[in-house]
Amino acid sequence: MGLSELLGTKFRCDCGRSHDLTVRRFVYDAAAIDRLPDIVRQCAGHCVRAVVVADSRTWEVCGRRVLAALKRTYEDAYEIVVADGEHGTPVCDEATFQTLLARLREAKPEVMVAVGSGVVNDLCKWASFEMGIPYLVVATAASMNGYPAANVAATIAGVKVLLEARPPLAVIAEPQTIAGAPHEMIEAGFGDTIAKHQSNTDWWMNHRLFGEYHCNFCAGIVADLEPLYLDRPEEIKEGDVSAVEGLFAALFWSGVAMTLVGTSAPASGGEHLLSHTLDMIASVRGHRHDLHGRQVGVGTILSAALYEKILAIESPEFCTMPAQVDAGFWSDVAVAEAVARQYEAKRAGLDAVRRHLAERNTWDRLRAELAERSRRPQEIRGWLERAGGATCAAHIGCSTQQLRDAALHMHEIRKRFTVVDLAWMMGVLPDALDDIIAQWLSD
Prior knowledge:
Blueprint: E1 10-12, E2 18-20, E3 25-28, H1 36-44, E4 49-55, H2 56-71, E5 76-82, H3 94-107, E6 111-116, H4 118-131, E7 135-139, E8 151-156, E9 159-164, E10 170-173, H5 175-179, H6 183-194, H7 196-210, H8 216-224, H9 226-230, H10 233-237, H11 241-261, H12 270-285, H13 292-311, H14 333-347, H15 350-357, H16 362-373, H17 377-387, H18 400-409, H19 419-426, H20 428-431, H21 433-440
Helix pairs in contact: 3-4, 6-11, 6-13, 6-17, 8-11, 12-13, 12-18, 13-17, 13-19
């Protein structure tokens, strides 16, 4: 079965589960917006009231055209423009969500069309789930893989979390819009995509250590997409339309893999924690942060370097991880308490991991399996350099000290075990961090 044949289907997988993909259409076409009324009707059925949700930039890029296309079929169609946050772009947090939700409830739409990328898509996904109405998304940049994902990356009480929702019924994009997006957004998409090597390694590690569910088919989707973006990084850097199309397809289908599995595991591991931590620090301390995918690219180099250090250890002596979070680092009592809850949930299983890894031949087997899956830091950095992506602290607008601080605290924010936790258990963190930063994450 080809990937496009999966859309809108439910199928039994060799992993033993049934996968249900409610995304029905993936349209990448120069006339996609002109076709939008028909796509809405095919996916959502007969609707009378439609709303277009955009931010101030995406409204000008193609939001007006989306509304005009819908009005040819839906007389009762209107727009909502999400306001910018204090740093000049919208944010996906509780306050913004509640404001959008109130406006939507007042308008009572029957279908919603998001026009934008990460934040706008997540806000609409969240609202769609809360209100029980269908939504579609008109993508405006190849900046992240969350378009078809079922979860929402939101900030709740200052903490980056994943919320359960439902994916859109369709993802629609026009090549001229995607290729014409600001280059830093394309760089972000490339950074988010190459992270899948490392996130899949973390996923496999959790499967081996904790018996976590793993699906070879969904992991294979991500692996099979490599030629779409790794074969043409220089052309992606130049904004070549066909090369950016390949990147966008890779982002879409890696997001589908998350939806099929029901978690972010195939596409988000320890490398994402650096970006989430930098976002949280920026939020509580009141300064800007860079695009998620650009930060993830730097985090992917860090993840690969951690794996390289870990896998060089033949006979590990397991260390005890910090007993509690560094509350002072988080600068906010509520955030520190929320982080502490995540960390405590993880620490409960760490002793069992240490005992298991200390068993005869266990580390040798796991070490060999992880070595097959993880990429070397020079490979990751080389791909990012060829695509024009961010590769060091300065490129993502933070100092080396800020990057170091985030790397030393990112294990605290999630209960899921990743390479970052393994690095602490092996003594790679904090001992080798300064060497890693000097070798791989400095300008």
